[in-house]
């Protein structure tokens, strides 16, 4: 158990819909990262928040957005869902802003299926 | 891009040693992580290298050559539970870029 929690574990929804994925980082960790992992792709970095502020942005679609709240939990919002958005979405946390040797701890993931 | 390259699949025998290589572009490089990921599960941290040389941690070791843009993960005394994907993740520090870039991973199958 990494100490990072994600809800829900599974999500099945239809194309065009909107969903929210939730992540609670390890106690004391200030950074939250979101990743997408499809069957044929590696872990694709989406976005990072550090202490409530956006820190780095990867290949995140405009239909996707995220935020980190004052209690440091984070939400990833996916809208106008398409079949290709079906994937495992991981949240990870780390104690720092991502520029040192501290590793990222990954949550168990949310498996999103768009039908 | 960072052109992270690692073999897609490898097979090795229980009790043997296997080396998983990873190459990457050196521009902006500042450290490299290795993660293990069992199918359908979260990645878990294995090692971190920022200086040249070998870091040993039990049955797992990781090597880095900064000038060559090369790292490897060495797994000794292979066990069936080592069957997993191994992800190479270098970090590049230049403005506007991602903190970590993961390779597509090497799927290791350990056979009896």
What does it look like?
- Chain A is mainly beta and 115 residues long.
- Chain A contains no helices and eleven strands.
- In chain A, strands 2, 4, 5, 6, 9, 10 and 11 form a seven-stranded mixed β-sheet that branches. In chain A, strands 1-3-8-7 form a four-stranded antiparallel β-sheet, with no helix packed on it.
- The model of chain A has no long low-confidence stretch (mean pLDDT 93).
- Chain B has strands at 9-13, 18-23, 29-37, 44-49, 53-57, 60-65, 70-75, 84-92, 106-111.
- In chain B, a hairpin with a 6-residue loop joins strand 3 and strand 4 (44-49).
- Chain B is mostly beta strands.
- Chain B contains no helices and nine strands.
- The interface between A and B is medium-sized, with 25 and 24 residues.
Strand order of the largest sheet of chain B: 1-9-8-3-4
Q: Give the count of helical stretches of chain B.
A: 0
Structural class of chain B: mainly beta
Helix content of chain A: under 10%
Largest interface: A-B, 25 and 24 residues
SSE order of chain B: EEEEEEEEE
Please give the alpha-carbon distance between the first and last residues of chain B: 39 Å
Shape of chain A: globular
Poorly predicted sequence stretches spanning 5 or more consecutive residues of chain A: none
Distance between the termini of chain A: 31 Å
Overall 3D form of chain B: globular
Quaternary organization? heterodimer
Roughly what is the average pLDDT of chain B, rounded to an integer?
A: 91
Q: Based on helices, strands and strand pairing, what is the structural class of chain A?
A: mainly beta
Radius of gyration of chain A: 13 Å
Q: What's the story with the biggest beta sheet of chain A?
A: 7 strands, mixed
| Percentage of residues in strands of chain B | over 45%
Helix tally of chain A?
0
Strand content of chain A: over 45%
Order of helices and strands of chain A: EEEEEEEEEEE
Contiguous uncertain segments of 5+ residues of chain B: none
């Amino acid at each position: 158990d990494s100490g990072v929690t994600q809800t829900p574990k599974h999500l099945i929804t239809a194309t065009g819909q909107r969903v929210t994925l939730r992540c609670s980082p390890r106690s004391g960790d200030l950074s939250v990262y979101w990743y997408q992992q499809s069957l044929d792709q590696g872990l694709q970095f989406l976005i990072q928040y550090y202490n409530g502020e956006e820190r780095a942005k990867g290949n995140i679609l405009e239909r996707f957005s995220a935020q980190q709240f004052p209690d440091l939990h984070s939400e990833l919002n996916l809208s106008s869902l398409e079949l290709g958005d079906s994937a495992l979405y991981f949240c990870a946390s780390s104690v720092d802003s991502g520029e040192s040797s501290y590793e990222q701890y990954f949550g168990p993931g949310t498996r999103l299926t768009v039908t | 891009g960072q052109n992270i390259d690692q073999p897609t699949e490898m097979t090795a025998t229980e009790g043997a040693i296997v080396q998983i290589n990873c190459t990457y572009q050196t521009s902006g490089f500042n450290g490299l992580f290795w993660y293990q990921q069992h199918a359908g599960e979260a990645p878990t941290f294995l090692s971190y290298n920022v200086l040249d040389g070998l870091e040993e941690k039990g049955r797992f070791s990781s090597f880095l050559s900064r000038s060559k843009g090369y790292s490897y993960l060495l797994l000794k005394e292979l066990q069936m539970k080592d069957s997993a994907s191994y992800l190479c993740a270098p970090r590049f520090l230049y403005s506007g870029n991602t903190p970590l870039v993961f390779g597509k991973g090497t799927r290791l199958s350990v056979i009896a």
